[in-house]
Automatic annotation (TrEMBL):
Keywords: Flavoprotein. Residues 4-237 form the NADH:flavin oxidoreductase/NADH oxidase N-terminal domain. InterPro entries: Aldolase_TIM, OxRdtase_FMN_N, Oye-like. It comes from Fusarium acutatum. One of its GO terms (molecular function) is FMN binding. Pfam families: Oxidored_FMN. This is Flavo nadh-dependent oxidoreductase.
């Protein structure tokens, strides 16, 4: 797996020891008022000490109204930043903090006294106030020691809703044309770049074929929207575009937690369509300032082959890092990866303990 183990530098400024990334995963274990604690420090430090090139933490919500999980973390007070500082201080790897905010209408929530799915849909009247909310959260993330931010623009979260004509019915400068629907995401990128003094500190996570949380759009709109968006992101010289392939035939899904997720009827894709190979060409070209990262159900072997063929720069593994804290040594030494033998409860935890299924996975003897 020599290709994935090669070092790489983001934006000419952020060197990584290899091209393997621990992807963002909601684990629902920040039980101390939605702040990370002892368990999170150990969880991330364990995966950093074995040589992970880049770690992207679980989604950190920029406002409490955006939180759809009971024990997901926040980042909108100095207290939150101070708690996350203990996590970043314990890590030897570069660390990015994802930003997320709720999908307005229809998205799952698990909070006391609130409905399972939101019915009180209210249009955003002051878009700049939302941009400022993101900006403030990113300022706190910077003080907490994060090297940058991954902006989540998929899965039905707010940036993706603005991108979609099915969710975005606005008649102002943020709705209608593809340029208008992309405006909000691009304004967020501009704001984050200003906070971190450079766009190389930004990773934007998108999934053109996504259909989670009713985010699917037809093929023609998808092509137009993401061709424009990716082109504009590269123009802005963002450090990484993290391109997913959920919803495409190439990745039917493992079924480990959500189960099979067939594509909704009426939104067909060309047979064998792979959005990473299609849109990746907009990122991977001579002189491009932006690195291409891919995610969703890749094997180590397939990812290494794509890196060797110059089809991608970096690869995200997520669930494999749960039960393989020593994923990098296993890859280096050609050891088999551990499998999840405990069932789907490990993803989001149990009430009786925050460490069970979280910090109790064994490592291989050579790690």
């Amino acid at each position: 797996m020599a290709n994935l183990l090669e070092p790489i530098t983001i934006g000419g400024k952020l060197p990584l020891r290899n091209r393997i990334v621990m992807g963002s995963m909601t684990r629902n274990r920040c039980i101390d008022n939605n702040k990370p604690g002892r368990s999170q420090i150990k969880y991330y430090a364990d995966r950093a000490k074995y040589g992970t090139g880049l770690i992207i933490t679980e989604g950190i919500f920029v406002d409490w109204t955006g939180c759809d999980w009971k024990h997901a973390p926040f980042m909108f007070t100095q207290d939150h930043a101070d708690a996350w500082r203990k996590v970043t201080d314990a890590n030897g790897a570069k660390v990015l903090a994802p930003s997320a905010i709720k999908a307005h209408g229809g998205k799952y929530r698990e909070l006391p006294g609130t409905p399972g799915h939101t019915d009180n849909i209210e249009a955003i009247t002051d878009v700049q106030a939302v941009v400022d909310t993101y900006r403030r959260s990113c300022e706190l993330a910077k003080t907490a020691g994060f090297d940058g931010v991954e902006l989540l623009a998929q899965g039905g979260y707010l940036p993706q809703q603005f991108l979609s004509s099915r969710a975005n019915h606005r008649t102002d400068e943020y709705g209608g044309s593809v340029e208008n629907r992309c405006r909000f995401t691009l304004e967020l990128v501009n704001a984050i770049a200003a906070v971190f003094k450079g766009p190389e500190h930004i990773c934007v996570k998108i999934n053109p074929t996504d259909h989670l949380n009713d985010s699917v759009v037809d093929f023609d709109e998808m092509k137009e929207t993401y061709t424009y968006l990716i082109t504009e992101l590269v123009k802005r010289q963002v450090g990484i575009i993290n391109l997913g392939r959920r919803g495409a035939e190439t990745s039917p899904g493992s079924g480990e937690f959500f189960g099979p997720l067939p594509r909704p009827g009426g939104y067909p894709l060309p047979r064998g369509y792979d959005p990473v190979l299609d849109f990746g060409k907009l990122v991977k070209f001579p002189g491009s300032p932006t690195l291409l990262m891919a995610n969703h159900d890749y094997t180590v072997e397939a990812a290494d082959a794509l890196a060797g063929a110059d089809k991608l720069d970096m690869i995200t593994f997520a669930r494999a890092f749960i039960w393989n804290p020593d994923l990098i040594p296993r890859i280096i030494h050609g050891l088999p990866l551990a499998e999840n033998d405990r069932g789907p409860w490990v993803f989001y935890g149990l009430e009786e303990t925050e460490d069970k299924g979280y910090n109790d996975w064994p490592v291989a003897s050579t790690a």
